[in-house]
Amino acid sequence: MTGTDALAIREMLVPDDVERVTALYRESANWHAQSWPDRFEVPLGEQFGIWQADGFVLVADADGEIVGMVSAEMVDGPAVWVGDVIVTAAARRNGVGELLMHAVEEWARQRGATHIGLQVYVDNGPARSLYGKLGYVDDHIKMRRTL
Ligand SMILES: CC(C)(COP(=O)(O)OP(=O)(O)OC[C@H]1O[C@@H](n2cnc3c(N)ncnc32)[C@H](O)[C@@H]1OP(=O)(O)O)[C@@H](O)C(=O)NCCC(=O)NCCS
User: Fold this and answer.
1) Is the CB of 92 under 6 A from ligand 1?
2) CATH for 7-133, among 3.40.630.30, 3.40.225.10, 3.40.50.720, 1.10.10.2910?
């Protein structure tokens, strides 16, 4: 895939898109486990919690092929909390992630949200670059140590 011209950002259809969105989650879970074997295990199971009551999932549809997704929900603030942003490996660096994030921001604005929050691992370079490019700044830092 090159560019985003043939791409449609739309709400996930249930049940039609469930299998393909689950495949994206599985791919992301594998990628996380390879990148950070001390934090993640493979397989992660089948339940990924993508259908929250106040949440929604947008997918990037490239002519019938789902190449990316983002999940988000309204929280107090009013604000939007972004849960997962995933672009399939073959479609990365084409602007899909950026397009998905813009779509979430539009969704949030339409519902009166005043800001957007999300969580990212400090060493997830691609994701941090994406969020940084879009104007996200560090807020609070979660810490851990190995025992
Ligand atoms: C993070 C992720 C969603 C980015 O999706 P993407 O479609 O490749 O991102 P885009 O093509 O829209 O890139 C937009 C910007 O993000 C940054 N970026 C994205 N991937 C990058 C990479 N591998 N290295 C450096 N910067 C990167 C760049 O600033 C880029 O702008 P540019 O192309 O003008 O340089 C994708 O890499 C992914 O699915 N990763 C695995 C899942 C994950 O970690 N999700 C985030 C969890 S918090």
Assistant:
1) yes
2) 3.40.630.30
